[in-house]
Amino acid sequence: MTEQAQEFDPARLIRMMSKNGHNKLIGTQYHGHGEGWCELALPYSEDLVTDTASGILASGPIFTLMDMATSLSIWLKTGVFQPQATLDLRIDYLRPARPGQMVVGHGECYHVTRSIAFIRGHAHDGDPTKPIAHVAGTYFFTAS
Amino acid sequence: MTNLLSPYARTMGFEAERDSEGRLVIAMPYGDGVRGRPGFVHGGALAGLLETVAYVTLSEALGAEDKPVLKPVNMTATYMRGALEVTTYARATIERLGKRIANIEAVAWQDDPAKPVAIAQINVMLDRSGR
Fold first, then answer.
1. Helices (H), chain A
2. Which residue in B35, B51, B78 is closest to A22 by CB distance?
3. Residue A15: its pLDDT value, please?
4. pTM
5. Surface-to-core class of residue B13, CB atoms within 10 Å of its CB (0-12 exposed, 13-18 middle, 19+ buried)
6. Would you say A115 and A144 are in contact if contact means Cβ atoms under 8 Å apart?
7. Beta carbons of A23 and B52 less than 8 Å apart
8. Chain B positions in Cβ-Cβ contact with residue A49 (cut-off 8 Å)
9. Closest Cα of chain B to A144: distance in Å?
10. Cα dihedral angle (B74, B79, B82, B83), rounded to 10 degrees?
11. Looking at domain A10-141, which of 3.30.70.890, 3.10.129.10, 1.10.1740.110, 3.40.50.1000 is its CATH number?
12. What single-letter DSSP state applies at residue A96?
């Protein structure tokens, strides 16, 4: 890990962000990070399901989880905390998350230019070799 | 119309309404639960709103007789403006409703529908296999 990445502590940031706002509502938690990547976790909640009978988690919270994980991965890639906004984010749903399972979202920033960060990621519900979703997208640096 | 909304949608505080032409509009009142970076609505909350209005619009179009299982295939959200600390509205247009696939476009706005804050392309599989 680079010195710059060590300066930016996503665990602390997520603890802070999870105290209020949308992240508090859905319950986002820190799971792990490294150079250019970040993992967040979404504990299962009956308040976030798409219908009560199936108990399947709605896709909205998974989208938020991936948006957060990929957005943090950019700061871990550049080592610089600069303001950014999502330009677009595509999510492919490979299969539903199993009811009751925590979902882990892995976000990775694989390229940055002066204005744009390119990200990809995936989510799984226990077995990282069996993803439930893949994402790809771009962010732009609002101050550049 | 509240029963059309999922537990997730109720957690988010979504409210189903009709516009003057009778089209479904879902409102997301501003509150702490949808807040992202200071002063703005979270992009994930906007995505959840766009997806919800797409699925409810599709369910209505299918009617009471036709009840396939709706399985999300994918969704691409594009963010066009920062969504501020006011109510956000969204509606969806079904571009094509096939036997197995529906292609939907959803749009979210705040004060002016002509100035969207975000749009989404959503593809849904209609599963009639009975599983």
1. 3-7, 10-17, 21-26, 59-78
2. B35
3. 82
4. 0.94
5. middle
6. yes
7. no
8. 6-8
9. 16
10. -40
11. 3.10.129.10
12. P
Mutation site, B79, B104, B119, B125, interface A, largest A CB count within 10 A: B79
Q: Which of B74, B123, B125 has the most A C-beta neighbours within 10 Å, making it the best mutation to test the interface with A?
A: B74
* Regions of chain A short of the pLDDT cut 70: 1-7
The residues of chain B scoring below 70 in pLDDT are 1-4, 131
Give the pLDDT confidence score for residue B25 in this predicted structure: 98
As beta bridge partners, residue B25 has B17
Q: How many domains does chain B have?
A: 1
CATH number, domain containing residue B43: 3.10.129.10
Predicted ipTM > 0.85? yes
How does pLDDT run across A60-90, given as a tens digit for each residue?
999 999 999 999 999 999 998 889 999 999 9
Length of chain B: 131
Chain B: closest CA distance from residue A28 (Å): 12
**Residue B129 CB coordination number (10 Å):** 6
Single-letter residue type at A45: S
